[in-house]
Every structure is written in C-alpha cells, then in structure tokens.
Write a structure and sequence with these properties.
- The chain is an alpha+beta fold.
- A hairpin with a 5-residue loop joins strand 2 and strand 3.
- It has one domain.
- It is globular, with a radius of gyration of 24 Å.
- The protein is built from 10 helices and 12 strands.
- Helix 7 crosses helix 9 (256-272).
C-alpha cells in the first residue's frame, strides 16, 4: 500500500478544516438572520387591538407615581403581586408609558419570527401611541425604550392557569440586540431591535389579554390606565381593598384618604369611557368591585381576524 505524501496529507487536512469553518460560518449567519425561525407570537388580535401578558399587569411592575415623583432604580427587588406569584425586577420603575410602548413593539414584532431584528422610528411609535409630535413626546418614547432595554424580570406563578399545565416561569428581557440608528433630534431616532424569544412563554393561550387600543387611548389618568389593564386581564375581577391596590400600584402616596378618592375618580372614568359596566365601593370593607361588559374570548377574536 503506497505511503501518502506528507504535503498532500497536510493539504487535505487544511482543506477539510476550511470547509468546516465555512459551514460553521454559514450556520451562524443563518441563525443570526433568522433566529428561532419557527417561533412566532400568536396572531390572534387585529390592527386596532394590542396584546399584553397578564403576568406583567397583575403585579407592581407598572407603578402609579404621584406627579413629580422620581422613578426608583431597582435591583432584583421583589415587587407586589397577586397570591401565587413571585416577581423580581431589575431596572428603572415602569409607568404606563413603558407598558404602552412594549405593546406597540409586540404588535410590530409579531409579524416576524421571534428574535428577528426590525426597525422602529420615533415618528412611527408616536403615531401608534397617539402622543402627538412634541419634543416632550419624543423624549417619552426614548425614555420608555431605554428603560425597556435595561429591564430584566423574573416571574414564577405556582398556580397553573389551566389544568395539566406547568407553572409559569419567565426570566429575561423583553427586547434585545438594540441598536440606536441616527441622531435623536426631533424624533430622528430609529431603533433596531428584536423581541426576545423567551417572551413566548408569556403568550400561551390563557396567559395574555387582547385590548381595544383606541379605547385605551382615551384614558389620560395613569391610575385609570393601570386599572384598565388589570381588570381587562380578569374575566370576573375579585373585589380589591384600597391597601391592596395601593401596594400593587407601587404608590408612594401615604395619604390613604387622598389615594382612595383618586381611586374612586379613576373607576368613575372607566365607567364614563364605557370600559367597565359598573364600579362600586364598599366603605365597610374598604373594597372596590368592578363588573365587566360582555367579553369576547380569544377564540372568537381569532375567528374574526382569520
């Protein structure tokens, strides 16, 4: 048997290595261009609707801050939540701005495989949010996106939302791979970003809620906006006490009488806007109870969208 030429042997080895490097590079490129290409958010809501994960609404992630109050910078802080849930958050406190901006990003990103990069502009976001086009409005968008970029959340819900399902667990960010494109003057900002594929864990059939976006846009009160999302995530909301709502909203208003009156006004606003059928307050138990209008299931919405 002939002995292989040493130089030929080295050449074949190097050729094999080069092909392997080329194959690995192509596979890496494909993963970067189409990451998690088989994972999509559900497409069960229409153009005038938005979707929000229940878990991030049923806790103190979104704070209702008094005018002029500074947002807190939190580090793995356990925040108030419903019984059976444990939520830890790192980042700057959210307000209704962050949850509203996140709903727009989710709405845009659902058309692409999770993890795929897409570009949004300040002008586009303001049109969707209905915030106007002032410098202050552009700054609100920039602030909200910056907070979302740095936000990390850990959620564990020990109570299955439906039979034969595992407890909900989520740990991570909502958006990733963010690049700021262009200058920031007068809404010139553009962001290239992706929805983190881990977010899919929050969008199982019974884990998210579809809302009518235009109706929410009519709300200006931060407390009314908080109550709106909270009640929307419940088919039959249980009565909640004033102290419980105070904790869930992350309020720093120590005047409970003042807070209680603001709550009553916010509930009245929901009724005036036709977002709930009724809202009553029981002074004996110090509880607030809301009754819904007729609800539409996700399955019904999916049939309308299809």
């Amino acid at each position: 048997m002939p002995v292989p030429n040493f130089d030929d042997l080295l050449s074949r080895i190097e050729s094999s290595r080069a092909k392997a490097r080329e194959r690995d590079a192509l596979e890496m490129s494909a993963r970067e261009v189409h990451p998690q290409a088989d994972l999509f958010l559900p497409a069960t809501w229409g153009k005038q609707q938005r979707a929000v994960p229940n878990a991030i609404v049923r806790c103190g992630l979104v704070a209702v801050l008094e005018k002029g109050a500074e947002r807190l910078q939190l580090d793995r802080a356990e925040i108030a939540s419903l019984d059976g849930m444990r939520v830890e958050y790192t980042g700057k406190q959210w307000t209704s701005d962050e949850i509203d901006v996140l709903m727009q990003l989710i709405h845009i990103g659902r058309a692409l495989p999770l993890g795929s990069l897409f570009v949004v502009t300040g002008h586009q976001m303001l049109q969707m949010l209905g915030w106007g086009r002032s410098d202050e409005s552009y700054e609100r968008v920039r602030c909200a996106i910056n907070i979302l970029i740095d936000a990390t959340l850990r959620i564990r819900c020990d109570r299955p939302v439906k039979p034969h399902t595992k407890p909900l667990t989520f740990a991570g960010r909502f958006v990733k791979d963010v690049t700021i494109i262009g200058d920031e003057a007068h809404g010139g900002s553009r962001w290239q970003l992706a929805i983190d594929p881990k977010v899919l864990a929050l969008f199982d059939e019974n884990l998210y809620t579809i809302i009518e976006w235009q109706r929410r846009q009519g709300l200006r009160s931060p407390m009314a906006k908080w109550l709106h999302l909270y009640y929307e995530t419940h088919d039959e909301p249980h009565p909640l006490s004033t102290p419980r709502l105070h904790a869930l909203m992350g309020s720093r208003n120590q005047n409970m009488s003042s807070f209680r009156q603001t709550l009553k006004k916010a509930h009245q606003m929901l009724m005036d806007k036709g977002l709930v059928a009724s809202a009553t307050y029981d002074p004996v138990s110090d509880t607030h109870e809301v009754k819904h209008l007729r609800r539409i299931s996700h399955a019904s919405v999916a049939a309308l969208v299809a």
